[in-house]
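Write out structure tokens for TBC1 domain family member 13.
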Amino acid sequence: GYVTIIRNASFLTPSMAVSFREVYAQFLREMIIQPGIAKANLGFSREDVTLEDHPLNPNPDSRWNNYFKDNEVLLQIDKDVRRLYPDMAFFQRATEYPCLLILDPQNEYETLRRRVEQTTLKAQTVDRNRSGVTNVSSPGKAQNLYPSNEFEVLPPGSEAHWEVVERILFVYAKLNPGIAYVQGMNEIVGPIYYTFATDPNCQWKEHAEADTFFCFTNLMSENRDNFIKSLDDSQCGITCKMESVYSTLKEKDVELYLKLQEQNIKPQYFTFRWLTLLLSQEFLLPDVIRIWDTLFSDKDRFEFLILVCCAMLILIRDQLLAGDFTVNMRLLQDYPISDVHRILQKAKELQDES
């Protein structure tokens, strides 16, 4: 099933998984624990703050400068992962296997949770979307960003699943500064983490965080161009893939293609989300996992994704042919068919016709 496929896609054999997990533990030490200890120490020593380094130091190599840049990324990640799959309670619940390395009481350092709490109280909230547009809200609004009754308060020594996802994305952003974090990555990592964290085998479940990180990294190595705006109009960019949906539709159903063209319904109006997020926003999580199961088992997985998108259009062709612009946009933004088996079967038929 899906777990086996995603492990195989990431070359995660049990023996290799052990070494990968050790590498991930080292990432946590270097990117979260050690900077957290350094920050705590800087806060206590006035001499270090004023002579060696200080919060207003313009030097790009300044520890404070890097700390503040990381906080911008962390705040966006935090905002997104807290609302991950809001129709499910899973991500708000405590994990059975909290990261002992992070929660070790012997480590006196600033945790990611503490960084977010302090930053939202002291600074403006920075929201960077995929287009690079930065929205800054006032400090007053930041204080009320997360109402106290919105999320269950977990006891000391516990952490919610969304906090684990937050850590995975923060480490990924630190290791990949060229892309860092872009809104939507949370929707990609969510199903992967859920699959590992609900594995009936406790040996896999216990290491869901590290295994998810490497599977997500490998998946992003194939999918990351969709998240880089400067590549949008290149051959490997998202624009080319969106146009592929329409060119494929033209081959498979020219009447429907001409109808969408006539109504000036451009592929970017709906296929941008479908392709970039691998349909994770269009269906319930169990159905997303079922779709990914088929996608990741296909050697031409992203070409098959184009066919899945075409199948989704063809299956509602009668409604689209009868509807006006407004009706059709509503259909495409809120896809009406929930039977993913039917969609995948149609996509396979389209593939066999090629």
